[in-house]
Give the backbone structure.
Amino acid sequence: MKKAVHFGAGNIGRGFIGLLLGLSDYEVVFVDVNEEILAALNKNNRYKVLEVGGAEEKEYTVNNVRGINGKEISTVAKEIADADIVTAAVGPNNLKFIAPAIAEGLKIRLEKARPTELNIIACENAVKASTELKDYVYQNLDENLQEKADLYIGFPDSAVDRIVPPQEITESLEVKVESFKEWIVDQTQFKGEIPEIEGMNLTDNLVAFVERKIFTLNTGHCGTAYMGYYKGYQYIHEAIKDEEIYKTIKEALMESGSSLIEFYGFDEGTHKSYINKILKRFENPALMDSVTRVGRDPLRKLGAKDRLVKPASRAVEMGKFPTNLAKCIALGFLFDVDGDEAAQKIQDKIEKEGIERTLEAVTGLAPEGDLGQEVLKQYKELLDNL
């Protein structure tokens, strides 16, 4: 049986990439530091995934799974040494932490007289995550091994899309996910034969699909969360049914989509259908996805290169004024959830330095610029209406 080593045994890892690998007849070795999940994987050697919200619910059983502790680098390295594929879903900020174990596995692998090719795919909500992981791994390899790795080890970048909400607290490994899923991988970056994995689609223009996903799904999801929180909704599916929220988010996605259509040549009608599909996914009540979860960490999500500010800035550059995206950005500065450390940092900064300086520090937008002025105007109007 083929073997996959997958970093990240959480709900996303099990409910998305782990599922697809299992359906493609891989033994899946999950690497994580959560001892309870690892113990359950090793005890049961299987888990269930439930797809909800589609025409009908579907249940899958992923067999032939086990878990190892990511802190045991030598053990992880031995698994990588003879793996057929390595994947990761640990969050972009955690890629640097898994790199040493991957590097140790590659050292064993590349010391062989005739090493076989291996592809390592970071399945993260970020642009060129696999390339970033490669940089971290290479920091742990000497120059000779780097040259050898260039011949045998691929780091194909990918785009992933599946909503996996927080799960009910149980002792079960079962994961509840939406029925929609999309995993697109850059076919030009593989080494050796490209593996056949159910649900993995190939492209030679990955950046277009990564940005289409981030600046549509993530833009809309985040905007819905911030506006939903402002208006007192608890869940995304409740918020998006609000006529004002729906209209604002749809218009924001059209503003974001204008640059995607121009930059990457997406068909306008097809992209409008994609936007409608995204909005329909937000309506799925079975996911019970809270606005506080989706909107969390606004310090990152309001960043200059992230899901709201970047498409808004692009629209301005193209001569189209993104009024609705500006409103979503303004709402992000009113996302003052008590348990969200990043949200509280923003609120503290506003209190100490004012909204103008905070806006510039968080988003990079100049308060005197056209977009900055629009965000500030809407922020003050929204604040007055609280």
In short: Residues 91 and 261 are 28 Å apart (CA to CA). The first strand starts at residue 2 and ends at 7. The chain has a mean pLDDT of 95. The two ends are 59 Å apart (CA to CA).
